[in-house]
Structure formats: C-alpha cells, structure tokens
Amino acid sequence: MNWKKRWKSELDSEISKFSDNVFSAPVTSQVGQNSVGALKINKKSIISISTIALALLLSVILMCSWFIKKPQPLNENVFVIQINPSAAFVVDGNDKVKSVSSLNFDADVILSDQQNKSNIIGKSVQEATNFFVESAAKYGYIDIADITLHQNAAAIKITSYGQKDFEFLRSSIESELSKNGIPSVVLWNKSESKSDFNNLLGIDETKEDIIGELKNMSNTYAERVVGDIDKITAYFQNLLDGLEQLNPGSAIFIRNVIEQYLNGEQNAEEFISEVMNGLSSLKEFRKFQFEHLYEIPRQPIGKEQLEEIHGKIVDDNGSLEDFFNNRGQKK
C-alpha cells in the first residue's frame, strides 16, 4: 500500500471515530437556553420600556391638554349704580356679581343686611341690580307716592369703567320697574377717566387696580369712614335723623353710642357693631313704612307710554341728565 492509500485509510478511520463520538454525545441546550432566555429578556425589556415611554407620552399630552383647556381667569369689570343709595358692583366674565360695596349711608341701610347681600352676590348682574333697585323702592329711597301723584319717574344712573359695556342694564331696570307701574329714567355712561371713576368710588384717584381695591375694601361705608371724623360725623347725623323720625328710642341709644365713641370710651370695632344694629333697626322701620307703597298693584307701563313720560321730563328739565342731577340725588 503506497503512502497515499495508507494516509487516506488512517484519516478515514479517525473521522469515523470522531463522527461516532459527536453523534453519540449528549446534546445540551445550555447555549440554546441562554440564547432564548436572552431573547425573551430583551423582548420583555423592550415591552416595558415601550409601556413606560407610552405612559410618559400620554402624561405629557394630558398635561399639555390640561394647561391648554384649563379655564383662564375671567375678566372682571365694575360699575356703580346711583339712586341715592349708591353701590359698586364687581362682575365676572359670566356677568355674575362677585362683590358689592356700599358707597354711602343709604346703601349701608340696604347692604348691612346679610340676606340682602346674598340676593346680590353670586347672582346675574340683571338679578342683582333689579334687587338693589327694588330694595331702594321698598325702603323709601324711590318716592313712589310722589311719582304716581305727579307723574314723575324714578331717577337712576349707571356708570361703568373697563371693557364691559353695561348699557343693557338700562332697559332691564326700566322694564322691571315698568312691570310694577313705576316709570323710571335710567341713565348710563362709561367713564373714560380712571381718576373720575375712583372719585365716584371714594378711593384714592392714583390707585390703578380699581377692582382689587373694591374686592378688598369693607362692604359697608361706615367701616371705611370710621376713622374720618368729618365723614363719620355726617354719617352719624344721617343715622340719627332716620331713627328720630321712625324710632326715637333707638335714636337715643345710638346717640349715646356715638358720644362714647367720640369720647374714646369705645373702640372702632365695638362702635361699628352698634352702628350695624342701628342700621338694622332703621332698615326694618323704613321697610315697614314704605314697602306697602311698592306692593300696591299698579297698571304696567308700556314702552310707548314710558317714552312719552321721558319726553315730558325733557320738556320740564331740559334733559334726562338734568332731571337726574336735580331730582335723582335726593338725600
């Protein structure tokens, strides 16, 4: 046998042995299992990461959506109504009354009563103003007897400041009073001067944040002027005049309270508390004296009839504005 055949024969015998060993050897799955496990781990990791990423994405979207859709603060506006009770109303963008502040003694008679305030704050601007006007009539600040006897009219003025136009209140108030057979002249104007409007409110004309001032100020006029001797003295006199006509006993008590305060025997908080009691008494007596006049059934006034009354008032007074200035500011 030459060397080639011998080499081939030996090589075949070795390969045969190697093949038998390989084929007969147990097959382990360690490598395969590790590979599959790694694959499974990778798949789980990918799914978890994807879930977290999706959740984060949804959170971001929801947060952005919330900020976009979050209700923005509504613009607030203010107007003053003068009958002679005068009050300032702060109104939000939905025409709901947020706050009301009395601007003189007569308005205190109305607004010192918590129930009256609850019929104004939170109500629509039409409901609130109609209630305030109705209260003024029930407490005798609109002279219904004089109006019906002499064919005059209730004189009311609305002054606004800011972006909101409250001219629609004119027809609302006139319509409500006309239903009760009470003719009225309701004027409206928009103040272009901040300082003039501040003066109307009784606050420093340099104040820029008018609405902020109103929302932070005391609701009653008495609380704001208690430290001003001239204004509070005039306030005392109004209170005493009203009580002496209607309830002399209450007038004597309040006079003693005033003297104690002026003599330093009573602090401002105690004094205001007693003043509120005096106002409550005056409110009840005025309501007892005048409310029945408001409740008397009267023939409703039509639009054309009201226009005729306005025409007569202009003929007699020169203008509706002059009528308000000469008659509407009765003390």
Task: Characterise this structure.
- 64% of the residues lie in helices and 10% in strands.
- The protein is of the alpha+beta class.
- Strands 3-2-1-4-5 form a five-stranded mixed β-sheet, with helices on both faces.
- Strand 1 and strand 2 form a beta hairpin.
- The longest helix has 40 residues, at 30-69.
- It is globular.
- It starts with a helix and ends with a helix.
- Residues 29-33 and 66-73 have low confidence and may be disordered.
SSE layout and pairing:
Elements: H1 3-24, H2 30-69, E1 77-82, E2 86-91, E3 97-102, H3 105-111, H4 114-118, H5 125-138, H6 144-150, E4 154-161, H7 168-179, E5 184-190, H8 194-201, H9 210-216, H10 221-225, H11 229-246, H12 248-262, H13 268-295, H14 303-317, H15 320-328
Parallel strand pairs: 4-5
Antiparallel strand pairs: 1-2, 1-4, 2-3
